[in-house]
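Subject: Protein record for review, amino acid sequence with backbone structure tokens
Why sent: The fold of this protein is of interest and is recorded here as tokens.
Enclosed: The protein record, placed directly beneath this head.
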Amino acid sequence: MFKVLVIAYYFPPKGLSGVQRMLKFVKYMPKNNWLPTVLTSGTNAYYAYDPSLLDEINKEQVKIVRVEAKEINSLLPQKGTIKMPSEPVRKILSYFSALFFVPDNKKAWAKKALEKGRELLSNESYDLIFVSGPPFSSVETAVQLKKEFDIPMVIDYRDLWYGYHFAIYPTPFHKSLIRKMEYRALKAADKIVVIDRMVKEKIMSYYKFVKHTDVLIIPHGFDREDFDNAGTEPRPIDKMILTYSGMFYDYITPQYLLKAFKELLQEKPDYAANIQLQFVGLLRKSIIRQIKKLKIEQYVKISGYVSHKEAVCKIQSSDILWLMIGRSRNSDTHPTGKVYEYIGTRKPIIGFVCEGVVKSLLQEYEASYLCDPYDLTEIKQTIIKVYEDFRLNRLPKPNPEFVDKFRRDYLTTQLTQDLQFLVKVK
């Protein structure tokens, strides 16, 4: 058995999509002869907690070490779950965070993690360090630990670092500093893991010393056990349930779907009467106000934030799944994990998407309907087409071989087989 120190700030009982990738890697690592110790954060202020996720881990095979530090989330007076700020407030907070904290506002936690990492590596023999970003301050921790203890270090990119689609660079100095930090980290890394081809190409274009063989693509995925354990829930027999699971922010917005549905309601009220729009996850007040303003409340079901198991149950009980990714800087590399979990359901998917990774995925999936994310007429016609296919029982079926490529157990096997080549002979 190999031993790996996994550094991941976002990890259960924290919820939301940011924890899923590391949770599933850690869950399936022991089945591939790797014993992980997870160095992660404590219970501080965060938008969502889901303690049930920890039930997936075999406590005898996975050791979890939690570190508390005086970083922003820990300094807030309220611990545990907090309300999400409005989008304008979030952008303002992000600007000031980027201004004063480089590479990010988890620096204080990363320093404490460095201390604990030194302690762990001094007391036990580990074969590898595996760090996931963001936050990328934790990558700096991993680089320092590699330097001090001379063991292989792998960086897992859940998002881009330099060029991240939400990144804010208050000054040219900030931008230059981030690039220098990433340059040093990649120079130190023994392997780079990314979530798709576009992210790989971006990194290789920014840093010419990174070779094709240095970067391993392990996409996001879905866990078959999640669907087997979640089951389904009672639902209206006479309605087509169209579901969105997750959060909205910036260029990922429901406003065009809602406006198109309002037009559908005016033109084909008999169609609209048999469609239920379901939103599973945190929903900002501004979106709820828009639903009321359009007077479509009776056609919308808002579930709010639920556990991951409940969310899987709801998408599994739906007829159609919907996602939207609009245009933004580097939106072609947007790494949404949602689409892979959608794929795992084998349900038809409506994608309001631009050119890029997600559009290509949905085309290969085959059971998809694609349209421009901002064209209200096209969106409305797509909903009509989907509803007519639903009513006539001719919804498309996915390519099963394509779906199975994204099983979390299979992806973890791919990862660990590659990591094994990095282990030093003792």
